[in-house]
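#struct-pred

JT: dropping the chains for the assembly here, can someone run the whole complex?
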Amino acid sequence: MAETKIPYKIYLSEDDMPKAWYNLRADMKNKPAPLLNPGTGKPLTAEELSPIFCEELVAQELDDTTAYIEIPEEIRNFYKMFRPSPLVRAYCLEEKLGTPAKIYYKFEGNNTSGSHKLNSAIAQAYYAKKQGLKGVTTETGAGQWGTALSMACSYFGLDCKVYMVKVSYEQKPFRREVMRTYGASVVPSPSETTEVGKKILAEFPGTTGSLGCAISEAVEVATKNPGYRYVLGSVLNQVLLHQSVIGLETKTALDKYGIKPDIIIGCAGGGSNLGGLIAPFMGEKLRGEADYRIIAVEPASCPSFTRGTFAYDFCDTGMICPLAKMYTLGSSFIPSANHAGGLRFHGMSSTLSQLYHDGYMEATSVEQTSVFEAAEMFARVEGILPAPESSHAIRAAIDEALKCKETGEEKTIVFGLTGTGYFDLVAYQKFNDGEMSDYIPTDEEIAASVAKLPKVGE
Amino acid sequence: MAETKIPYKIYLSEDDMPKAWYNLRADMKNKPAPLLNPGTGKPLTAEELSPIFCEELVAQELDDTTAYIEIPEEIRNFYKMFRPSPLVRAYCLEEKLGTPAKIYYKFEGNNTSGSHKLNSAIAQAYYAKKQGLKGVTTETGAGQWGTALSMACSYFGLDCKVYMVKVSYEQKPFRREVMRTYGASVVPSPSETTEVGKKILAEFPGTTGSLGCAISEAVEVATKNPGYRYVLGSVLNQVLLHQSVIGLETKTALDKYGIKPDIIIGCAGGGSNLGGLIAPFMGEKLRGEADYRIIAVEPASCPSFTRGTFAYDFCDTGMICPLAKMYTLGSSFIPSANHAGGLRFHGMSSTLSQLYHDGYMEATSVEQTSVFEAAEMFARVEGILPAPESSHAIRAAIDEALKCKETGEEKTIVFGLTGTGYFDLVAYQKFNDGEMSDYIPTDEEIAASVAKLPKVGE
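RK: done, full complex below.
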């Protein structure tokens, strides 16, 4: 009966918030492979990265030995606006499922960006401001990262240029307006504002754009305009570092009640949320201090871990960015129109890829319709309308809890609820109308794009 | 420097949550005037109200002597999903304004309904379930109340029929989809599903509906179908009672840090949020234990307190509902297309109207463009995108804080931040594009609708 003492929501005090990020790479024996210069095939140096990223972020990107990196006070103050985020005991979901499992979720959606992206956006904006830059550029597809970055830049008085994939710009006007409310300039991509944009428009006049094209435009603007740098919301080591605040808070909250999770589950697109959530737990695992089952959940339509290849590849479809060694479907892979925009990335964080390769974590893939079934059940019993991305983790958590129901095991499951679905109601509408479809790429499709992987770093 | 000990967000523990609602009317010497039967002009009895509202809610509606009414455990458990809500110290807003004032806001938007409406929706659904009813009907305009009720009904397994004003149904498909995700049936009003709907459609084939018409349809369905009752999200005494949870938590949080507010501010449409926020403070004032400035903020386009008449009037434009004594612009008053849908009501809660009439509170009106200026500033510094309704309170709080800047007074201001603006981005877009307009009704317009007030209860 001590069990009932655990509240629905475990809130930490502001004093309990982490004062340093945890750099998982410091505890990895096999470090993630370095980024390569696509021209030379050699590891990129700080000097080569500095025209693109601001200096402190380059240092964080390359540092794989320092375990704890202090969170500057300015960032900690901003975090206090929306952190500590609650760790919620899913009593109602447990009851609905009739499972003996104990389910917890770390909810990162209670901020206006609607997701965990703000954790890294504010850090990247802070370092840009500290370096005396005028502004930053980025790309956004679904818009969560662009929104988070707009909020962060507004706070520090930085200019923010967001290249938004044209089809999203037109179909998701509300996301665009949130960014504009935060003072960002939002440009539909491809645009006439860049050389690469003009070139693409000349070649494909009717194109509705792509993430790869938007990245190319954002990088061009950052490198051509003095006082600007480019920022990215996932995949990179620096982003996983900043997101470790999720896992550190989760661990502190669990420790407060003496709870040891058996299974930790996160959705995985580029890896920012998953890498952040699991960081301190994976650290214990790497140091041999504890063991956990750690599960990455990806969409069956874009299964980089479960069906991809561990190899060097471009991070963008435009093939202008550094090469990263990762599980990838090939940068030319075009995922189906899955509604979880944040998970439609062909590759995966190098750090997580190495850990998966070394057997420290599992991966599973789930189909879209079953994800929305889980989302609907969760919304109804837990009261939160989840983002499609987050709902992949919900699906996997429910499946694990149902296994416990069969076996009678009282496992403790923790999953990351990365965000809310207020801007994803077109997807919910399709589901409500019974018009949602599932698409799983064929082996041939994946083989075709994997065959185009660059021949470097082998 | 003791000041710095106050965290950004004051969270109560679940044990600190109120176990009883506070019934403000018990401490009022001049009780709010009773609801009248429009046919007889006499006070409505419990028997007359029971075919419309469920029994325990009728009892709460009529009870003006019991100060504390226990919150059933089932409701308290549901509250734990999204309560206690944070009382936030607006450090960043204070800094932006350069004011010596200390600003706090009680944030009710961190739940999927996006507003405080869930506090009463769950109570009303609970009593309906307890009475063994099959379901409830309601109307919704902007959709916040309909969303909250859908969530509450889903939790208790009640059928929920929402009549949504046709123009909103078509223009706000996302709100509709949230309700559907929670299992509600959402019908565009006027519809062919009711006699009154058919009649209106025959008379005005192209009509896009009105709240008055939607109320009529919802009431018809509730009274004609065994096992159904009608529920309402504002104005009524029972709703203010449930919303007292806002004020009780606010007071507990302030008391925890020994803070005594000087000014308490809330936006006012039908009065649900304002009545809930101020309840315990007004109680102290009524009992002569403390004094506070209490300010209701309404849109200049729909100024029931500041330019209305204190008289009996219909609560609906269809004139089928009971008569309530209140500050009203007349039930035939049609407010301009202000974007704060929740504040476009011609009247005001009888309880608040009586208190205002007796001089216990002030009222002020603000114009739409200045409201969105305040909303934008608030979003940028405090990180929360506010609902247009809530932004009326923000505007007034900023204005009071700026007065403190002039006088150097360190006043403590508390305001209610009722909800988020994720479904109001059409309004933000108009503001961002510089296309927002202000409209203030002329004296003649108000006089014309006031002249049509019913001649009863005088």
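JT: nice. Residues 2-17+76-114+243-450 of chain A form a domain with the Rossmann fold fold (CATH 3.40.50.1100). The radius of gyration of chain A is 21 Å.
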